[in-house]
Amino acid sequence: MAALHELTAAEAARRIRAGAVSPSNLVAALLKRIDAVEPAVQAWVHLDRDAAARVAVQRDIEAREGRFMGALHGVPLALKDIFDAAGLVTTAGAGPFAHRTAAADAASVARLRAAGGVVLGKVTTTAFAFLDPSPTRNPWNPEHTPGGSSSGPAAAVAARMAPLALGSQTVGSVLRPAAYCGVVGLKPTHGRISTAGVVPLSWSLDHVGIFARTVEDCALTLGLLAGPDAADPLSSAAPLDDYVIATADPAPPRIGVLRALLERATPEMATHVEATARALEKSGAFLADAALPSSFTGLHDAGGLVMRAEAAAWHAPLFARHAAEYPPKIREALEAGRALSAVDFLAAQQHRRAFRADMAPVTARFDALLTPTVGAPAPKGLGSTGDPYFCAPWSFTGLPAIALPSGVDPAGLPLSIQLVGSAFGEARLLAAAAWCERVIGFDAVPRL
Amino acid sequence: MAALHELTAAEAARRIRAGAVSPSNLVAALLKRIDAVEPAVQAWVHLDRDAAARVAVQRDIEAREGRFMGALHGVPLALKDIFDAAGLVTTAGAGPFAHRTAAADAASVARLRAAGGVVLGKVTTTAFAFLDPSPTRNPWNPEHTPGGSSSGPAAAVAARMAPLALGSQTVGSVLRPAAYCGVVGLKPTHGRISTAGVVPLSWSLDHVGIFARTVEDCALTLGLLAGPDAADPLSSAAPLDDYVIATADPAPPRIGVLRALLERATPEMATHVEATARALEKSGAFLADAALPSSFTGLHDAGGLVMRAEAAAWHAPLFARHAAEYPPKIREALEAGRALSAVDFLAAQQHRRAFRADMAPVTARFDALLTPTVGAPAPKGLGSTGDPYFCAPWSFTGLPAIALPSGVDPAGLPLSIQLVGSAFGEARLLAAAAWCERVIGFDAVPRL
C-alpha cells in the first residue's frame, strides 16, 4: 500500500470518503514529506502549516459526521505564488516592492476550497511568471531546472510534497515544468478557468493550469474549476462536460501527429515521441499525420509581442516606481513591451486569431494532436527555465493541452508527450490522455 | 393618402402585403422622387436603377402569387457605400485606389435582401467613414452639412428618396447625421449586427446602424439584422427579442436624464431637450436625474485613441501604397494611429471597458437615458460633419442608442433627442423610443 504522501488527489479523496484516511493524517504525512525533501527541492515560498492542520481537523470532523464539502474533501494542495489566498502574501516571485497581502482568495482557489481542498501554502514562481528563475530545483536531479514559470507546482507534485497544485501558463509555464518534472500538466482552453485573483502576465494568453500525477486528478480538478466568472471578463460560458466520466473508460483515440514539430526536437526526443506514437498505435489508437497551417509561420513572434505589450501595460504603474528592482529578463521584456506600437500589437493579435481559426479544422479531425512537450529534457543549471517553443502555440491559440510523462532518458530525466485538443473540447482531450496514460504506464519516481 | 415615396418601410410592407401597392410602382415612385431631389441633395453614389426595377418586378410576381419573402417584401432601401453588395463597386467614399467590386453581399445586406428588401443602390459616406466630407447636402438646407459619416443614408431617408437605409457608426456616424437630417437613427449594441462585408474603421467600435423615419421601421429592420454571424467574430449570441412586438404598445418609460451632458450643448439645444423632457413627463414618463460615473472623464480621448490605432492597423497595407491619395483628415488620423504605443492602446481599451462596466448599473435603472443627440443643429457649410461628442460615449461602450427627431429650430433645422439603453436591451430602448415618438409627434418635412 502506497505511503500517504504518495496518494493521488483522487485516491486520497476516495480513501477519506471511505473513512480509511483522515485529512489530518494526510496533511501530517505531507508536512513530514516536505520536511524531508524540501531542503533539496526548495519549492515552497510559504508553508502554511498551522492553517493547513487546523483546516484538516475541521475536514476530519465533517468526514466523521459523513458531511463532505465536495470532490476534494480533505485533499491538500499547493498554490503557485501568483494566486491570491486570503490573508497570505502574494509575492509573485518578485521583491518586496511587489508583495501584497491578499484580501480574498483567487476565484480558482475559492472553488477548490469550497470543494474541500486544504491549502498547504504557496510554492515558487519565476518572477512575475516570466523567465527569471526561482531557486527551485528539479526533483529528478537538483542540478537541473524544474522549468518555469510554475517551478514550485511542478517540483512539489513531482517530489510528492502535494498531490495537486495550481499553476499558470502564458507561453509554456504549465506544460514545460510538468514535462521537466515528470508530472501531468493540464492547461485548459483560454477562458475555461477564471483568472480572477491571479497576478496577470498577459491577459489574452494567461491560463490557470493544473499539476497532478494522473489524468484523473486533472479531470477531477478541472470539473471544479471550469466555468464562467463575473470577475473575469475573459472567462467563458462555453458548455461544460463531466470530465471525470469522460476519462473513466476511454476508447482508443484518433491522434494527429504534428510531424513538423517533431523535427524541432532533439533527435533523441523525436525518436522517443515516434516510439511512443507507435506504441499507442499498436495498442489501438488511430494515428495519422496532421499538418500545421501556413499561419504557424511567425506565430511565436506574434504571441511574444502580445505578451510583452500586455505585460508592459499591466506593469506600467509598478514599473514606473520600481524598474531597477525588477529582475533582468522581465525588465527587458517590459522595456521592449513599452516600445511596441499599437499597430504591431493589433497585427500580432490578428495573426494569433488567424492561426487559431486555421487550427479549428485540424483539431476537429482528431481527439488529440501529438507533439513533444519540450524539445529536450530539463536543461542543466538553474539559470534558464528552458525553451517553451512546443507549448507556446497552444497558449497563443488558447487551445487545451496536456503534458503526460512518457519515459525517463538515460540520464534519469523525465520525457513527456504533449496532447492538444480543440477549443473547449477538454472532455475529448482528457479522454484521449487517459487512454494514452494507461498504454504508456509511466511509473518512475524521482529518488529524493 | 401619402404619396408612395412618403411611405415608411413598415407602411410600404403592409400595403404590398395587402395588394394595395406593387413593389414596382413603389420603386418607380422613389426613382422619380430621386430624379426630382437628388440634384439638390447629392446623396447617391450609384443608383442601381435597372437591378432595382428588375428585382421589384420579381417581388411583384411573388406578391401577386401570395408568396412573400419576408418582412420587407418589396421595400426599397439604400446602402452606405461601405457595405458590400454583390457585383457593385464599394468605393468607401475614397479615391479609385480604394475601390473594389464586391463578390458577395455584406451579411446585413444579405439578410435584408432575404427578407424581400430591394436595394436601390449606394449612398454616400465620408471617406472611409471618417471625417473628410462627402458632397451630400442637408435636405433641410443645402448650405448645411447632413452630418457624417453616414451622410447619404441620413439625407436619402430625410429627402424621401428611400424609406430605409443602412449606415454605420464608429463614433457618431449614425445618430449625428440622423439628428442633423431629422430622421430616426438606431445604433444597436456592439456585436448585435454582423459587420461582415462592411469596410471597417475600428472593429472594437464599429456598429451597423439603421436609418428610417419611425421607431417601428427601426424595430422591424433590427429584427431582421440582429443575431450572431460566424463571419464576424465580434458578433454576439446574446438573446434576441421581438422588437416589433416590443414597440407596438409601449408603456410610459422610466427615463434617466444625463444632465451633465446637457450642459455641453448650446443653451438653445439644452432648453429644447429640457422642454422635451418636461413634455414626456407631463404625458406620463417617469423622469429622474442620472449621473455619469467618474470614468467618463477621459473617455473621449480613450475611444479616439482606440479608433486611430485600429484604423491604422486595418489601413496599413493600403496606406503603405497610397498615403498621398488619402484625404487629409483620415490621413492625419492614420499617421497618428501609427505613432501610438501598444501600452497606450491597451490602457485606452481598459478605460473604455471600465466605463462600460460603470454604466451597467446606470442603464439598468432606466428604460432609457436621455441626452441631446448633438450639441446644436447641423452646422453651416460642408467642410465639417459636426461634433460627435454626445454620440461617442455610446459607441465607445457599445451601448444601444437611438436618435429621435424632436423639433425644428427657428432657422428650420431639425432638433433631436438621444435615448441610450442597456447592453443588448434594444427591446426596452425601442419601446421607450416608440412611446416618446408618439408624445413628441414630430411631423415636419424638409421642403425640397
Which key terms come to mind for this protein?
eleven-stranded mixed sheet; alpha/beta; Amidase signature (AS) enzymes; 448 residues; 15 helices; homodimer
Structural notes for this entry:
The structure is a homodimer of 448-residue chains. The first copy, chain A, has 448 residues and is an alpha/beta fold. Chain A has a single domain, classed as Amidase signature (AS) domain (Amidase signature (AS) enzymes). Chain A is built from 15 helices and 13 strands. Chain A has helices at 9-17, 23-41, 49-64, 107-114, 151-158, 175-181, 215-225, 243-248, 259-262, 267-282, 299-322, 328-338, 342-365, 392-397, 426-440; strands spanning 44-47, 76-80, 89-90, 100-101, 118-123, 165-169, 184-187, 207-212, 254-258, 286-290, 368-372, 401-408, 414-420. In chain A, the strands form 2 sheets. An 11-stranded mixed beta sheet of chain A has the order 1-5-2-6-8-7-12-13-11-9-10, sandwiched between helices. A two-stranded antiparallel ribbon of chain A has the order 3-4. In chain A, a hairpin with a 5-residue loop joins β12 and β13 (414-420). In chain A, α11 (299-322) packs across α12 (328-338). The first copy, chain A, is globular and about 60 Å long. The interface between A and B is medium-sized, with 19 and 19 residues.
Quick check: average pLDDT of chain A? 97
- Tell me the fraction of residues in β-strands of chain A, as a range: 5-15%
Which assembly state applies to the chains in this document?
homodimer
Order of helices and strands of chain A: HHEHEEEHEHEHEEHHEHHEHHHEHEEH
Q: Any idea of the CATH topology of chain A?
A: Amidase signature (AS) enzymes
Superfamily (CATH H level) name of chain A: Amidase signature (AS) domain
User: How many domains make up the coordinates of chain A?
Assistant: 1
- Radius of gyration of chain A (Å): 20 Å
Number of strands of chain A: 13
Query: Which secondary-structure class do the elements of chain A indicate?
Result: alpha/beta
Order of strands in the sheet with most strands of chain A: 1-5-2-6-8-7-12-13-11-9-10
What percentage of residues of chain A falls in helices of 4 or more residues?
40-55%
Largest sheet entry of chain A: 11 strands, mixed
Known CATH architecture of chain A: Alpha-Beta Complex
Total number of helices of chain A: 15
Shape verdict of chain A: globular
Name of the CATH first level of chain A: Alpha Beta
Low-confidence stretches of chain A: none
Cα distance, first to last residue of chain A?
19 Å
